[in-house]
Amino acid sequence: MELQQVPDPQIINDTDVLIRMENLGICGSDVHYFTTGRIGSQVVEYPFPVGHEGAGIILETGSAVTNVKQGDRIFVDPAISCGKCDQCLAGRPHTCRNTRFLGCPGQSDGSLSEYIVMPQTCCYPVPDHVSLSEAAFAEPLSIGVYAVKLYGNPLAGKKIGILGSGPIGMSVLLSALADGAERVYITDKIDQRLHIAKESGANWTGNPDREDIVDAIFNHEPLALDVVFECCGKQEAMDQAIQLLKPGGKVMIIGIPEFDHWSFSTDVIRRKELCLQNVRRQNECVQLTLDMIADGRVNVKNLITHHFPFEKTKDAFDLVADYKDGVMKAMIDF
Questions:
Q1: 85: burial class by Cβ within 10 Å (0-12, 13-18, 19+)?
Q2: Residues 6+ apart with CB under 8 A from 184
């Protein structure tokens, strides 16, 4: 990774805005590209800027922009959908046939840059009392909000598992608690993350390197769990999820694995009649997420554990890639 000087981006479409980036969170998918150069079929061709969890300030607007103005503090939705394909018209812009996603190879350069240009539809004003680093965290948090919504039932009275308490797992935790989940069991291999999860409201935490997660949770819940959110992209976590669910339960698959194929016990998932539900980014949950941060329904401040200046971005990526210093979310401050 290196820092390059490039020409400033220019507004071309009259509905675009020029944004000065202020804060950008480092996502696990950014790190996948950094360490392996690919996620599935999406392969990086260098040089390529990643980054998609961002917030900034509007510097300039196109002549037809109406929903934001110069000087506005905004969250940047990284997904640019076409609004015309069958998916968009069916209310699924997150699976748009022609989507362009920031920091996604073959689609759009990322927002790991001092200035970017985006359509006005991707800009969400941020209240003055919400910091722009909190606003940047709305990107992973919106995935947690969407995952809870996609589950399909209120979590009130439900007993849930979250496997992996990184930023996505914590986003699910905060969203599930806000939705009224009765008990939340969460796991991770990094004790500092488990400490944050416990402080944030988890009823039980466990480290799979030190104990049998399935046995430990069954000691508390002999009838098993209603839903398990897989948030780390690991096969052993998927195996645990299948065992932990009660008949008729559901696995919400959010984690992005570095391998190409999951494996399941067909006997277990058939006999239990389990449902496997993939979660693809977020669908129309950005404003709800920003509102939840603004009105205090969720608190993301203690999830932002590290700050780096733009010039030290590689140090930040190395930290996140190696899970050093108990990192939860590393934030780039431009």
A1: middle
A2: 160, 161, 162, 173, 176, 177, 201, 202, 203, 204
The position carrying tokens 């969460």 is 186
CA-CA distance, 245 to 1, in Å (whole number)? 42
C-alpha distances in Å from residue 42, one per residue of 24, 52, 152, 197: 22, 16, 30, 32
Pairing type for strands 245-253 and 329-333 reads unpaired
Among 159, 189, 184, 158, residue whose Cα is nearest residue 172? 184
CA dist 65 and 104 (Å) reads 26
Give the integer Cα–Cα distance in Å for 59 and 178.
35
* d(C-alpha 133, C-alpha 113), whole Å: 16
What would the pLDDT profile of 72-122 be if each residue is shown by its tens digit? 999 999 999 999 999 999 999 999 999 999 999 999 999 999 999 999 999
Tokens standing for 217?
Answer: 């949770």
* CA atoms of 233 and 160, how far apart (whole Å): 18
User: What are the tokens at 277?
Assistant: 């539900």
Sign of the torsion angle spanned by Cα atoms 83, 78, 112, 66:
positive
List the structure tokens of 103: 């920091």
Q: Which domains does the chain have, with CATH numbers?
A: 16-137+300-333 (3.90.180.10), 141-278 (3.40.50.720)
Question: What are the angstrom distances between the C-alpha of 327 and each of 67, 152, 192, 209?
Answer: 36, 32, 8, 18
Per-residue pLDDT tens over the stretch 20-71: 999 999 999 999 999 999 988 899 999 999 999 999 999 999 999 999 999 9
Structure tokens at 73: 């503090």
Which tokens go with 80? 């640019």
Q: Is the dihedral of CA 301, 122, 50, 309 positive or negative?
A: negative
Element (H, E) at 236: helix 235-244
Tokens of 320: 């996140």
